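Q: What does the assembly look like in three dimensions?
Context provided by user:
Components: two
Sequences:
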Amino acid sequence: MASDIGWWGLAASAVLVAVAVALSMLRQLRLERSIVWSSARAAVQLLLVGVALDVLLDAGVAWSWAWVVGMVVFAADTVHRRAPEVPGVTVLALGAFAAAAVVTLAVLFGLDVFPLEPRTLIPLAGMMIGNAMTSTVLVARRVLEELRDKRDEVEARLALGLASADAAKPYVRAALRTALIPQIETTKSVGLVFLPGAMTGLILAGADPFDAVRVQIAVMYLVLGSVATTVTVVGLGAQRRLFTTDHRLVVPSRPAD
Amino acid sequence: MTGPLFSFEHVSVGDDSRWRLRDVVVELPDCGITTIVGPSGSGKSTLLRCCNRLEALREGVVRYRGVDVMTIDPLVLRRRVGMVFQRPTPFAGTGRDNLRVADPNISDARAAELLQVVKLDPSFLDRDATRLSGGEAQRLCLARSLAARPDVLLMDEVTSSVDPPTRIALEELAHSCARSDVRVLWVTHDFDQARRIADHIVVVLAGRVAHSAPAGELEAAAPPDVLAFLEEARGGE
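A: Here is the predicted structure of the complete assembly.
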């Protein structure tokens, strides 16, 4: 039978939070409040999401799309808060998530990989946006840091008469690789080193392992495709915003410590 | 008599929090080597970077041989007005790869010829540019700028991080460029060097051009603050 955690089981699992708190106290890490706060916050957030999903899954697919839009906006705002130095990063992230959603969801639903219904749309979009968000923050920061750290080289290229896109190319390429490689490594080691979330969830919920594997493979490709799309859109977009139209580099200085 | 190479007409760079150049009016002559000299932070490099539009003007006009630089495509302008920077900036790859950034179709013969001009032997074409010494890298950067066949070379404190033999070699190279009709604008804080190589000297103090004169007539009509700077520069030797 599938595992079906009751309220008692949920409370019992909180013992593991107590273990983390105890370790923090033992080693004087002073992280007890953070551990308790983040655990409680996660529980409340997920319970609220559970309530919302319970309603959404029974509502029309239009409401699910509205939920997806909400996730995209929230993710773009998160990118802005985590990479505030990159000019116009919110708009870039919105564009990137929209592009990734169009590409990946069009493939998954357009080619009938999954049926288009709230039960598939919401979790797939959630996984796509969640993974893409992390890579988006990483690439936005890396493009800025590469161009800032290599400012002398970039200006030397500009001074040779190269257009800004050509002058920035080696450094933006390095940033894109840095942002994409973790996802590629994760994809490579999946199943060997760890069992991914979607598959674990399905198996715990009682699904046939081969069904779970097929879903997981499709999800992995979804994540890889969306991460590649968002990283490319945000990386190239950030590069454009760090140059003027007359090919001058305008990277903000590193903030003082 | 030819017109000026560059003319600065009431040029300001920066903003109210800090003006790096303020109301600069000067004409740089279209001949030989002009050195731009002044203390650190006085605005000499900023003045140089206005010549190839790496710097944005807040006010005023910079003209290159009579033409407002803002009306020239910056990519075209920068190929005519090359630049070598204070710190050597070799790009990843070999010496040949570096020269190809400036001229993608450069032949090996032309590349070797350029290396010869900057006193590097042809083996540097195949050497990793990022593993060169400071002096070697700076010479490669000069060869790279020359590969674009510029009419003018902006040289921004190019000897500040190299050894004395390379410094002398770079000064000689500036002379040889000038002899081959490539105009040189050379920024330095070293007044002895400025005097040694210049046909014309511009003194920049606190974001403004305090004086501009042929090298042999510098002191003749210099205002008191310039004389004080020159005195201090000599005293510091």
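Follow-up: The mean pLDDT of chain B is 93.
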